[in-house]
Amino acid sequence: MSLDSEPRASASVLIASHWLAEPLCMCYFPFVNSMKKIAVIAGDGIGKEVIPQAVKVIEATKAPVELTYLDWGADRYLRDGTTVPKDGFEMLARDFDAIFVGAFGDPRVPSNIHAKEILLGMRFKMDLYANVRPVRLLDASLCPLKGMEPKDIDFVVIRENTEGPYVDRGSVTNEGTDDEVAIQEDVNTYKGVRRIIRYAFEYCAHNKKADDTRRSRVLMSDKSNAMTYAGGLWQRVFKEVSAEYPQIKSEHMYVDALCAQMVRDPRQLDVIVTNNIFGDIITDLAAGLQGGLGMAASGNIHPGKTSMFEPVHGSAPAIAEKNIANPMGAILTAAMMLRHLGLTRQARWIEDGVLEAVRQKKTTQDIGGNLGTSEVVLWSTKSKFIAYVGDPDFHDGAIRKISRNSDELVVEVEGSTGTRFAVRFVGVESVISYNPEEMGLEALVEMETVAPSRRFVFVNWLEPEDQGGDAKLQIIARDFSVEKLMADG
Ligand SMILES: NC(=O)c1ccc[n+]([C@@H]2O[C@H](COP(=O)([O-])OP(=O)(O)OC[C@H]3O[C@@H](n4cnc5c(N)ncnc54)[C@H](O)[C@@H]3O)[C@@H](O)[C@H]2O)c1
To answer: For the segment 292-317, what is each residue's pLDDT rounded down to a tens digit?
Structure first.
């Protein structure tokens, strides 16, 4: 049966290896029509470098988002004394679906007052109580521990984000004398502890690991042997909430023992819930397991409210303005934000791009590559297809012809320079076309053969979503090869 078809529109074409958790099925791609509004605050230092790069990646996905740039940060503070404009947090909560943030901290502002008011202000005043920090090893080469594979490190830290010592309560008496006493209060409320522990159990119940296996354990970490008042509350509430989730295994570890475990054998870890300060500290350690601070993503979440997403790292003034900061943490954070907004396909596209860049060492120096911040992003947005085809213009191409004979599927694509390529898929496992009628590919949808799963996914978005499109062709095959054709095909 011949399945030749002519293109209807220009297309974005990429090849992606399928590595994320969701199963493939016909209803796989959620159809998202509404434009999501995102406030972008790059902030200080390397925030001003990595966030614009991550924005380029978001734009490359053609996600239906509207970005508004806010200049909050040290420059603005030094210019006019503003940290957060009047009603700034109300405006964020009212006018935006999400906030995408870089980092705050600048040596020109030694008090760090702007960072405190902007960042802690957002977390506290917008009540973003769950700081979600996924810890996932993308490639064995990134882990300093011997013998660790990506499947071994895939856990998440859920950090309480609105209490603890960060509420900045306390006192200093007899300052400047030998009798000086400084007290920093560690605030833990029943409601605050209960909601973060419940969030952790809910997260465990509803999220899978990257290899599609279920999450099944929640570990609460504290220092209740020494900090008895706060620890007592955490212990009691953890028992109370864990009883509501009998299907999930609940565990406890003192935070010092947990640090040792993270380095000795992180394979045991699944969902960790802990307080504000321990969460802050152990996620820097955890970032080390996944390639360093430049690789770590995070979200500051209050379900149902405008939430904020930021890479785990700070403004790193020592490496700012050198085009060496690793943008992957910010890019993975962008993916996390898009997934939170329901833009799953775009999130996967980004994560696939990062994974491939890491595998091919198209990265900054801190994780073994030799590219600058902006070059990494350029590569990631064009990503896989370039690696195989070697034509940087191929990314923006069009499908010209699709044909099939026996086990082989041939897709002819044309890059924007006019060069044509034939992509020959063998061992085709499944072909999924969304909007198949208009693509004339109904027959392909039914074709499904079992094949050993060296998976490649060929995705074609035939039309930008703002033109009512979202048609796509996705092919999972054992292997593929690319052949350059003459210009006239
Ligand atoms: N969320 C935030 O905004 C946030 C978080 C932490 C620190 N800070 C602030 O940032 C400033 C610097 O703090 P710091 O030096 O302790 O922590 P940092 O995370 O900014 O940097 C620590 C070190 O980690 C490395 N690093 C961090 N991000 C990297 C990246 N993307 N690519 C490559 N290497 C990277 C660098 O070697 C850097 O010197 C301070 O003012 C601090 O208060 C802000």
So the answer is: 999 999 999 999 999 999 999 999 99
User: Are 338 and 63 in contact, with CB atoms under 8 Å apart?
Assistant: yes
Cα(315) to centroid(ligand 1), Å: 5
Give catalytic status of residue 284 as yes or no.
yes
Strands 307-311 and 98-103: what pairing?
parallel
Residue 71 pLDDT greater than 70, yes or no: yes
Measure 266 CA to ligand 1 centroid, in angstroms: 24
Q: What does the pLDDT look like over 377-435, one tens digit per residue?
A: 877 665 433 323 333 334 444 566 778 777 788 877 765 566 677 778 877 766 665 54
Sheet holding 65-69, edge to edge: 65-69, 36-43, 98-103, 307-311, 297-301, 130-136, 154-160, 271-274, 217-222, 249-254
From the CA of 314, how far away is ligand 1's center (Å)? 3
DSSP E strand boundaries for 85-169: 98-103, 130-136, 154-160
Of 59, 54, 145, the residue nearest 373 (C-alpha)? 54
What is the distance in A from the centroid of ligand 1 to the CA of 318? 9
Domains of the chain listed by start with CATH number = 1-30+373-489 (3.20.190), 31-372 (3.40.718.10)
Catalytic residue chosen out of the listed positions 168, 211, 256, 466: 256
Active site includes 186? no
Summarised one tens digit per residue, pLDDT across range 191-245 is 999 999 999 999 999 999 988 899 999 999 999 999 999 999 999 999 999 999 9
Burial (0-12, 13-18, 19+ Cβ within 10 Å), 12: buried
Helix (H) or strand (E) holding 113: helix 113-115
* Whether 223 is catalytic: yes
Judged by DSSP in three states, 65 sits in: strand
| Structure-block tokens of residue 483 | 């052949």
- Output the pTM of the full model: 0.77
What number of residues does the chain have? 489
| CA 218 from centroid of its chain's CA atoms | 21
Q: Please identify which of the residues 106, 222, 280, 391 carries the catalytic annotation.
A: 280
To the nearest whole percent, how much of the chain has pLDDT over 90?
Answer: 63
Which atom of ligand 1 sits closest to the CA of residue 317?
12
Tokens 């279920």 — which residue? Answer: 214
Pairing type for strands 271-274 and 217-222 reads parallel
- Around ligand 1, the residues with Cβ closer than 6 Å are 46, 50, 103-105, 112, 115, 119, 293-294, 310, 313-316, 318-319, 325-326, 329, 366
389 vs 371, 422, 425, CA distance in Å? 20, 10, 14
The Å distance, Cα 240 to ligand 1 centre, comes to 37
Closest ligand 1 atom to Cα of 102 = 3
- Closest among 355, 382, 307, 392 to 131, alpha carbons compared: 307
